[in-house]
Design a protein that fits this description.
Length: 262
């Protein structure tokens, strides 16, 4: 991975008004990272703005997140969007959920192991997503090495069923065939996404597969915040992104060039 390319490389995007397909991560992208997964707060204006933009994009807007569909529905209610959840393990398109994998005994055992670890370490949080599980240590930074070593050991034990997805003070055991990049490519092969220019916005190592897929499809990849990345463009914060999305919803228009304004 590397830093985004020089601004001159991006000049054509700043004038691009082709029809886009918009893919959005959630944590760290639409909302700021919170101390624990349950503490995130979404700007109350965002769900309606996304619904407006979805209409303007003829339906080509999807959330691409490590969160479960049920959680994203709860924070975006009353709206229901296309979603690639659990890093692409579950995909809802046009109201129909396509589960790529189901729960496994091995994943249940991993959850039990992680819960035991969390019970003996203050600040460690286990996020059980049924077909995947995440271990968070943002509230226990001193446990970083021990937590990551445990997750790597469990991932090795469960291979080849899972891969280990490392992020910001979190690591997650994810079904091996699931990735945000694969999910975006799958959505881009179907209406209403097919034939449009993909734009994917994320903030973390977990989003790099998505950036790579969008770049390969000739789209625009956007990273929120700092860190090495394959993304083409960088925005400073979720606040900066929300300003762009809310403004675009008010104008009733969103293109790749919108992300170069303001």
């Amino acid at each position: 991975m590397s830093d985004p390319p020089p601004e001159q490389h991006l000049a054509p995007w700043a004038l691009d008004d082709r029809d886009i397909a918009l893919f959005l991560d959630f944590d760290g992208t639409l909302v700021e990272i919170a101390p624990s997964p349950a503490d995130v707060r979404l700007d109350r204006r965002v769900p309606a703005a996304l619904d407006t933009l979805r209409s303007r994009l003829s339906g080509a807007l999807a959330l691409v997140s490590g969160r479960p569909i049920s959680f994203l529905d709860s924070v975006l209610e009353p709206y229901r969007f296309d979603i690639a959840a659990l890093h692409g393990a579950d995909i809802r398109l046009g109201g129909r959920v396509q589960a790529q994998v189901g729960p496994s005994p091995e994943m249940r055992q991993a959850v039990r192991d992680l819960v035991r670890f969390a019970n003996s370490h203050v600040g460690i949080i286990v996020e059980d997503k049924d077909i995947s599980v995440a271990l968070h240590w943002r509230l226990a930074p001193q446990a970083h090495d021990e937590a990551l070593d445990l997750m790597r050991a469990i991932a090795e034990r469960m291979a080849p069923l899972v891969r280990l997805q490392e992020g910001k003070a979190v690591a997650e055991l994810v079904p091996a065939g699931a990735s945000k990049g694969t999910a975006i490519a799958q959505l881009m092969a179907t209406p209403p996404y097919a034939g449009r220019v993909p734009v994917f916005i994320g903030d973390d190592v977990t989003d790099e597969h998505g950036f790579e897929a969008v770049n390969a499809l000739g789209g625009l990849s956007i990273r929120i915040g700092d860190g090495e990345t394959r993304a083409d463009l960088r925005l400073a914060s979720p606040t900066a992104l929300r300003a762009i999305l809310l403004g675009a919803a008010e104008r009733g228009s969103l293109t790749a060039s919108s992300f170069f304004q303001g």
